[in-house]
Design goal:
394 residues, alpha/beta, FAD/NAD(P)-binding domain, 7-stranded mixed beta sheet, 6-stranded mixed beta sheet, 18 strands, 27% strand, globular, binds flavin-adenine dinucleotide
Amino acid sequence: MKVLVSGAGIAGPTLAYWLARAGHEVTIVEQSLELRTGGYLVDFWGAGFEVAGRMGIVPELRKRGYIFDKLEALRSDGSHVATAKTAKILKAGENYVSIERSELASVIYGSLNGGAELVLGDSVKSLNQNASIVEIEFESGSTREFDLVVGADGLHSRIRELSFGPETEFERYLGIVFAAFQVQGYEQRDEGVAFLCAGLGYQVLRLTLDRDRTLMLISAGYDGERPRDRADQEEIFRDALHDGGWEIPAILDAMTGSTDYFFDSVSQIRMPSWSSGRVVLVGDAGAAPSFMAGQGSALAMIEAYVLASQIAGASNYTEAFLGYENYLKKFILSKQDAATKLRLAFASRNHWELFVRNSAMRIMAIPGLSDLVMGKSFHDRIRLPDFKKAESLR
Ligand SMILES: Cc1cc2nc3c(=O)[nH]c(=O)nc-3n(C[C@H](O)[C@H](O)[C@H](O)COP(=O)(O)OP(=O)(O)OC[C@H]3O[C@@H](n4cnc5c(N)ncnc54)[C@H](O)[C@@H]3O)c2cc1C
């Protein structure tokens, strides 16, 4: 089949890898002019790590990634709350790496090894499907036909908007905005340690990267209209963190000078159905869990892998899309529900929530007790399908 995948992030190239392996003709269209570099870091673990293993990319991910084995939790004045071992909290053992999202995307894309056509700097403008085909008009003006179209174009998916309706119908805003940015030459450097500093209504994460770079991620509770203008966005964080001690004044100053700045809302996407005729959604486009899940990229890979397995094993696309949703919906919903409960970790609303958060941090730091705080949300209770077996069913 001829398949158009919109988005060369995490889900898109993963899906393309498995579809190409099953002999499908895949085109990826990506709106950016080049595959992105830099950006924020993702913790990568769980069943998504297993998918990466099946794609043979784990050694490359380890090479390009980081291990932050220590987590230092601080109060807003810089006083110590707790020190925890990250891998112990995630119970991930060796199957865990922190990596720039763009590097993860690049490694996944690299694994395709030319197995799919890549169109950069373009996007789907309109989409018309009938019983046998989907007609696509691109922003560039060209038109093409495909058997299936996959929206892997992230939280603000164009394919979702064109085929299912406006974002507002499916977005669940969790009352938090964030800014992620890299700083060159930030004075304080602590290799392998993740610093989490939380005050009333906000949290700041500082991670030391290679090549003298530091990644900052600030989250803050916010109920107003989400601004488009960068100066207005920065103002939200200045307001929210105005009483912050520790390195917070320096981090706010660094935000203004940073070139690699990314702002967005912390939102989930919840949809009654992930497919509409010949169009299907994968990754954040159909089921964003929000960054509070700490697992969005891993889930995007799981979804892509399961969708490809279903397409490989089913006798038609309707059966495949149904199988994909039945296989994953409950699991993904449980991840989304678990993530919403973590709000107090990223932007506690009152002193009681801040107290609970800090107490939870201390409990998590005690070996073997992280489950008391996190419940089962850090466990992936899913068995991945066997791709070869799925292929052999047809
Ligand atoms: C600050 C932050 C921290 C996070 N931390 C973690 C973490 O620790 N662990 C984790 O697993 N996940 C984390 N996530 C979540 C993770 O990044 C996402 O869940 C994951 O990237 C989703 O993959 P995706 O392929 O669905 O979407 P994306 O990675 O967003 O990729 C979408 C792609 O589609 C492209 N695109 C968009 N619109 C169009 C269009 N109209 N036409 C063509 N292309 C288009 C985009 O340019 C992009 O390349 C974090 C997210 C954020 C924001």
